[in-house]
Amino acid sequence: MAMTKTHRHEEKSSRFMSWGLPAVLAVALLAVGAACTAGGGESETRTPVAQATPTANAPQSAIPDFILQAPPPVREAYTFAVEHPEVLEYVPCFCGCGAGGHENNLDCFVSEFRADGTISYDSHAFGCQICVDIALDSKQMLAQGASLMEIRQFIDEKYGDAGPATDTSQPPAESGG
User: Fold this and answer.
1) Kind of pairing, strands 50-52 and 110-113?
2) Percent of the chain having pLDDT more than 90?
3) Is residue 138 within 8 Å of residue 85, measured between CB atoms?
4) Those residues with Cβ within 8 angstroms of residue 105's Cβ, 6 or more apart along the chain or in another chain
């Protein structure tokens, strides 16, 4: 008995459902699971996504769309990173991004501050709650008058068990503290 087109289609659909669909789902789950990790150190994880001027009053057109459309806490964290790189450069991140070349929490938000005043944003923190939470905790502590060392110690204690830390420099010694 010859197989009709309908039977061949049903056979192909059945084969896809038995192994193809699970494979597609597995790849999708791996992609979601890697959202807050480095992705094997490939350069794509640090590719700049946009440029903008580093002022708090930058025109909306100079801010990348992914930041403008982000939830308020994510926008707030990106703004803090741009306005206070001197804080986040001494704050480690604990999401696993160190494997991708990040050295501190600042790297999760900004790839480069250029000499011409523009910024190359990193989109990593856009999809990583740990990065955002660390930046916002640092912002809150700075607003309360905490020193860089106090901020660093708090972040180390709070997030130390979340994952591997970036290899972040210690803050400089502060006088009178």
Assistant:
1) unpaired
2) 59
3) no
4) 81, 88, 91, 92, 93, 131, 134, 135, 138, 155, 166, 168
Q: Which range of residues forms the domain containing residue 80?
A: 43-159
Cβ neighbors of 100 (< 8 A, separation 6 or more) are: 37, 38, 39, 40, 41, 42, 45, 46, 124
Q: Is a pLDDT exceeding 70 seen at residue 50?
A: no
Residue 175 domain-assigned? no
Q: Is residue 3 part of a domain?
A: no
Q: Check pLDDT > 50 for residue 76.
A: yes
Taking a C-beta distance cutoff of 8 angstroms, is the pair 19, 79 a contact?
no
When pLDDT is cut at 50, 70 and 90, the band that residue 115 belongs to is confident
CA dihedral 21, 24, 30, 36 (to 10 degrees): -120
| Average pLDDT of the residues in 51-60 | 44
- Does residue 176 lie in a domain region? no
